[in-house]
Write a structure and sequence with these properties.
Layout lengths: L1 H20 L15 E8 L2 E4 L1 E3 L2 E7 L8 E6 L4 E3 L12 E6 L5 E11 L2 E2 L3 E3 L2 H9 L4 E2 L3 E3 L19 E8 L16 E7 L7 E3 L5 E2 L3 E4 L5 E3 L5 E2 L3 E4 L4 E3 L5 E2 L3 E4 L5 E3 L5 E9 L5 E3 L5 E7 L13 E3 L5 E9 L5 E3 L5 E8 L5 E3 L5 E2 L3 E4 L15 E2 L2 E5 L16 E7 L6 E3 L5 E7 L7 E3 L3 E9 L12 E2 L3 E9 L5 E4 L4 E2 L3 E2 L12 E4 L4 E2 L3 E3 L7 E3 L5 E2 L3 E3 L8 E3 L5 E2 L3 E4 L9 E3 L5 E9 L23 E8 L19 E5 L7 H5 L7
Parallel strand pairs: 4-8, 9-11, 10-12, 11-13, 12-13, 13-14, 14-16, 14-17, 15-18, 16-19, 17-20, 18-21, 19-22, 20-23, 22-25, 23-25, 24-26, 25-27, 26-28, 27-29, 29-31, 30-32, 31-33, 31-34, 33-35, 34-36, 36-37, 37-39, 38-40, 39-41, 40-42, 41-43, 43-45, 43-46, 44-47, 45-48, 46-49, 47-50, 48-51, 49-52, ...
Antiparallel strand pairs: 1-2, 1-5, 3-4, 6-7, 7-8
Length: 695
């Protein structure tokens, strides 16, 4: 029984063995499903680098600065597997690659090959003052500097000729400064640099190429100030954390990945026909385009910059050849937009909606186009635009927060502001020689200033009321012959002639009422050249009324002025006009002050034939209050004989004055009466006692 069982077991084992041996070839280990990499290594310059195999990744660790281009590969696969592409076909092992390993049975597996660079950091700052120190630093294999890295010493006689030993450098935590001690022609040796805190290149030698192919980020400032720099190539640079300054005779530019500059950006000195920053969307500070020799400047993706200044920088040409500035997506400039001294034919900002201020100055602009601009938060200035003859380019402008100034536009004959524009502080028109008629009915400015040669031909027309202040300025040596003729306007918000020093004739007709102040200046600012001063139709001034000195005036005529709501202040006129006569004036709401002193040209007579009330103090005085400046001509106050009400009277240094009888009607309203150094000095009690005239 036992023997039979043993034979049976042997038979079964033999059958199993034969069954396995005779089964299908699919289970043959030499023709199965194995599709993996057993080992992977590269040999470069005799050095063997073995890769780590993790899952589907082939990870090769290599020192920074060691190139794997041209390395030979040794790859061992599972039996009967094959790999595509063939490692022998790979020329540059610095780059990532995908390989498919396929088993004998056709089952594929994809491997991802990539390189991890080994880092050798140095904490703190490093200064390399000589070429020997640069060489030694390179031999140390350092890849990162935690602090500053300064190459060369400013003012030193030691020079550095090559940066090639620095080819392992990947990162500088703070400033990388290349001083004028470096005399090389390029920056070869920094080709692996990926990140710096700040980069400052001030080398003054023969350097003409700035090529940083791996640089991706500058944490703070990127500054290149080298007049010989002809190439600036940083194709991977995406971000500058603060300021970006690029100045040089650049002929080749590649910053195609740069998206943001968080601070100021200034470019100048380029000699390229077209300058382009294709991906910049935002400049956090001021963007300065100071290019004298570049025709076209493109910022196709720019949406916002804090300020934009387009003008040749100091030291470059006075006038730029730039004739095209393309910023099709720029929507907002919180600060100033300033364009000048260039050959731009058209300023076209198709989607710009708001700016802090706007200044177009001294260029060949023929067309102004701001089709979406609604808000100018501050001032708007158009200056020396010799070809601009209209303001139609501001068709949707609603707000100007400051003044709107138009200066030296020789061909502008009509100032037609946008109908959408609301009230703003000042419209200033300076030296517009071609302007003949100004319709103020559409002007919503609080002040309308006409200056210089604008006054040569212009006439003012409008509705009965212009709510703004009308201000004239002509302080140059060129004499302006007349006050602009006024048609249709009967009321204005104010009249200011304090800056009209060279106005020869001031004859204002049509205007009957001034709803604010009327002034011709003060003792220090006055009508130097005026020979004729006539307010033919003026009847009322709601605010203050001031007449300054007019040393050459031959005629002063104010025939209809009846009421002044504020103060009256009048300075002496000339040797020809020594009589102050305001015949229709009935009331003054505030103070009345009349200056008359011998050091100038004193008034000889004061005549206010209709005056009835002065709300506060009547003062007749000289200044400074000294006897040598006393008035020796006025003998009485009969010019105030109709005065019925005044609170206080002050009369000083009128040495010929002997009679106060002109105040008899007002005596009961006078609370205080002060005289000093007059021909007859009295008190209020004296007058109430009837002592009006000196005996």
């Amino acid at each position: 029984m036992k023997k039979q069982n043993i034979l049976t077991i042997y038979a079964l084992l033999l059958a199993c063995f034969l069954g396995v041996w005779g089964c299908d070839d699919d289970n043959d280990p030499f023709t199965g499903t194995d599709n993996y990499v057993v080992s992977f290594r590269l040999t470069q310059n005799g050095e063997v680098l073995k890769a780590a195999l993790t899952g589907d990744s082939i990870i090769l660790q290599a020192p920074v600065g060691v190139s794997l281009a041209g390395a030979s590969a040794e790859v061992i696969l599972s039996e009967n597997a094959r790999i595509m592409p063939s490692p022998d076909s790979i020329a540059n092992w610095n780059e990532e690659a995908l390989f498919e390993v396929t088993s004998a049975s056709g089952v594929g597996r994809v491997y991802h090959y990539f390189v991890v660079r080994e880092s050798v950091p140095v904490e703190g700052s490093v200064t390399l003052a000589t070429q020997e120190e640069v060489d030694a630093f390179g031999e140390s294999g350092v890849t990162e500097v935690g602090g500053n890295l300064i190459i060369g010493r400013s003012g030193s006689e030691e020079v550095i000729t090559s940066l090639l030993p620095l080819n392992k450098l990947v990162r500088v935590g703070h400033d990388l400064k290349i001083t004028e001690a470096y005399t090389g022609i390029d920056l070869m040796g920094l080709e692996n640099l990926e990140e710096v805190g700040s980069l400052l290149i001030t080398a003054k030698g023969d350097i003409d190429q700035i090529y940083l192919p791996a640089l991706k980020k500058v944490g703070l400032d990127l500054t290149v100030q080298n007049n010989l720099a002809q190439e600036f190539v940083c194709p991977l640079l995406e971000e500058v954390g603060r300021n970006f300054t690029l100045a040089g005779t650049v002929r080749k530019l590649d910053v195609g990945s740069l998206k943001t500059v968080d601070g100021d950006m200034a470019i100048s000195g380029f000699t390229m026909d077209r300058v382009s920053f294709p991906r910049i969307t935002r400049v956090g500070g001021t963007l300065t385009v100071g290019l004298a020799d570049s025709y076209t400047v493109d910022f196709p993706a720019l949406e916002k910059c804090n300020a934009l200044n387009v003008k040749p920088t100091t030291g470059s040409a006075v006038f730029s050849v730039m004739n095209a500035l393309n910023m099709p997506l720029l929507k907002e400039i919180p600060g100033a937009l300033s364009i000048g001294s260039c050959k731009l034919v058209e300023t076209n900002f198709p989607v710009l909606e708001s700016v802090g201020s706007l200044a177009l100055d001294g260029s060949d602009i023929r067309v102004i186009r701001f089709p979406a601009l609604k808000t100018i938060a501050g001032n708007c200035t158009l200056n020396k635009l010799q070809y601009v003859n209209n303001l139609d380019g501001f068709e949707v402008l609603t707000t100007v927060g400051g003044s709107f100034t138009i200066t030296n536009l020789a061909t502008l004959k009509n100032v037609r502001l946008p109908a959408t524009l609301g009230e703003f502080s000042e419209l200033k028109l300076t030296d517009l020689e071609g302007l003949e008629t100004l319709d103020v009915s559409a002007v919503k400015a609080q002040t309308l200033t006409l200056e210089g040669s604008t006054l040569t031909k212009v006439s003012l027309v409008g509705g009965e009321v212009f709510p703004g202040i009308l201000k004239l300025v002509c302080s140059s040596t060129k004499v302006v012959t007349r006050f602009p003729p006024v048609f249709g306007i009967k009321e204005v918000g104010g009249i200011d002639l304090s800056g009209a020093k060279t106005l020869a004739e001031c004859e204002i007709t049509s205007i009957r009422k001034v709803n604010g102040d009327f002034t011709t200046g003060t003792s220090m600012a006055y009508l130097n050249s005026c020979k004729k001063f006539v307010l033919a139709d003026l009847e009322e001034v709601i605010g203050n009324f001031t007449l300054s000195k007019m040393p050459v005036v031959e005629e002063v005529n104010i025939p209809k002025l009846q009421k002044v709501g504020g103060n009256v202040e009048i300075f002496p006129f000339s040797t020809t006009c020594t009589v102050l006569d305001v015949p229709a004036l009935e009331s003054v709401g505030g103070k009345m002050t009349i200056y008359s002193w011998a050091s100038y040209v004193p008034f000889t007579e004061l005549s206010f034939g209709s005056i009835k009330s002065i709300g506060s103090t009547l003062t007749i005085m000289v200044t400074p209050p000294l006897p040598m400046y006393a008035n020796n001509d006025i003998t009485d106050m009969d010019g105030f004989a109709t005065l019925e009400s005044v609170k206080e009277v002050v009369i000083n240094f009128q040495s010929a004055l002997t009679s106060y009888a002109g105040f008899k009607k007002a005596i009961d309203t006078i609370e205080k009466f002060t005289t000093r150094s007059n021909g007859y000095t009295v008190t209020l009690d004296d007058l109430k006692a009837g002592k009006w005239t000196k005996e």
